[in-house]
Every structure is written in C-alpha cells, then in structure tokens.
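SUBJECT: A protein chain and its fold
Encoding: whole-number codes for local backbone shapes
RECORD BEGINS BELOW THIS LINE
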Amino acid sequence: MIVGIGVDLVDIARFERSIERTPRLIERLFAPSERTLPAHSLAARYAAKEALIKALGGSDGVRWTDIEITREASGRPLFALTGTTARAVAERGITMVHLSLSHDAGLATAYVVAEAAGSNGGGA
C-alpha cells in the first residue's frame, strides 16, 4: 500500500551557487561517499532527500547524512538509509521506498514512493 509520495525539483545552477557560498553544506547534506560527485549529481541527490522527507510526511527523526543514494549495477538509484533516518522510516511502517532521478535542461528532479505492507481495505 502506498503511504507517501514526494517529488522535488532543484535548479542545478542555483544549487551550485549555494554550495559555493556555503561549502559546509556538502558535509551537512551528503554522506561521505556522495561529497565528491559533480554538481548535477549532488542536486539530484538533494532533490531525492527532499522528496523522501515529503513522502515520509515530515523530517522528524531524519538526518540528511543518514540518507545516501546509491545505485544498483543496472544504474537504478536506491536509498541506503542508516541511523535515525532508518529508524524513522521503520517506525512509520514503511517497507519499501522507490526512487526515480533525472537531470536535464539545468534542473534535477526526484520522485519517491513509500510503501507499507498490507492493503488499504478498500473494495466495491
């Protein structure tokens, strides 16, 4: 059953300017393995983290650096959640989080669907 959906859109140039003005944002927003990626990839990951928070219904218990975006061998993006963020997701009953990322024309976007086991009990 879908329990949350989140989407976010980031202007890559604006994001890059923010990072240049405040370099410590990299450490506050990204896991160590993400910090050396190019600006367009960081912008997409930032969008993914924002979209996840929206899908969760808020940021209670969420730490930015506990949210890492990795990839399967096929290239499919995945969340690797740790620490308080992993606990917050589990406490909400979420068993699966789907992620789609894209960047083009100076924009990065992310779409997240959070699922929980069970059904909505609906019927006709």
Remarks:
- The chain has one domain: 2-116.
- DSSP finds four helices and five strands in the chain.
- Residues 6 and 51 are 4 Å apart (CA to CA).
